[in-house]
Amino acid sequence: MSTNITFTMIKPDAVADGHIGAILGKISGAGFKIKALKLTQLTVADAQKFYEVHAERPFYGELVDFMSSGPIVAAVLEGENAVESFRSLIGATNPAEAAEGTIRKMFAKSIGENAVHGSDSDENAQIEAAFHFAGKEIF
Ligand code: DAT
Ligand code: MG
After folding, report:
1. pTM of the model
2. How confident is the model at residue 42 (pLDDT cuts 50, 70, 90)?
3. One GO CC term of this entry (predicted)?
4. Span 21-30, mean pLDDT?
5. How far apart are CA 49 and CA 33, in angstroms?
6. Domain limits at 132?
7. Total number of domains constituting the chain
8. Rounded Cα gap, residues 50 and 92, in angstroms
């Protein structure tokens, strides 16, 4: 076990539905420490770049449109085995398959509009945190 970071976004669906407070409460309640936090909106170009690993997938256009459609909350979180433990907290990509009590089970609408992002590796957590935050914004 080691303390490290992950990167998350509360996606446009969950922000529009008024779930910022509840989701941040779940994150804090699970023991994550907030190292950086902001309300922001991705441009189409930002969303294309952030999700470029999915560029060849059939849902890429829909994903980019959705992720740039309204404000998001971006955050850097610190915790024990942060990447893996945060992915357990958010649940499966498809909320229909997410475990009871997970953030996606509670707040996601569909596989595309699924309330939150969580990094999938320590390396990507660092890349994604740096994509959204300047060094001086991470505490
Ligand atoms: P995750 O966000 O759980 O890491 P992912 O990296 O496979 O999932 O996909 C990134 C996002 O793309 C996901 O949060 C929602 C969207 N997405 C994935 N699979 C999809 C599908 N089959 N149809 C529509 N959107 C999808
Ligand atoms: Mg992913």
Report:
1. 0.98
2. very high
3. cytoplasm
4. 98
5. 27
6. 3-137
7. 1
8. 20
Amino acid 74: pLDDT: 99
Helix (H, G, I), strand (E, B) or coil at 56: coil
Any idea what the CATH number is for the domain that residue 41 is in?
A: 3.30.70.141
Q: Whose CA is nearest to atom 16 of ligand 1?
A: 112
- Report how far residue 105's alpha carbon sits from residue 98's, in angstroms, rounded to the nearest whole number: 5
Q: Is there a binding annotation on residue 11? A: yes
Terminal Cα-to-Cα distance of the chain (whole angstroms)? 22
Q: Which distant-in-sequence residues (6+ apart) come within 8 Å of 54 by Cβ?
A: 60, 63
What pLDDT digit, counting tens, does each position of 82-92 carry? Answer: 999 999 999 99
Q: How confident is the model at residue 3 (pLDDT cuts 50, 70, 90)?
A: confident
Find the 93 Cα to ligand 1 centroid distance in Å: 6
Asked if 14 contacts 39 with a C-beta cutoff of 8 angstroms, the reply is no
Ligand nearest to the CA of 51: 1
Neighbours of ion ligand 2 (CB under 5 A): 120
**Do 87 and 40 form a contact (C-beta atoms < 8 A)?**
no
The answer on whether 8 is annotated among ligand-binding residues is: no
Q: Which residues line ligand 1 (CB under 6 A)?
A: 54, 59, 63, 93, 111-112, 114, 117, 120
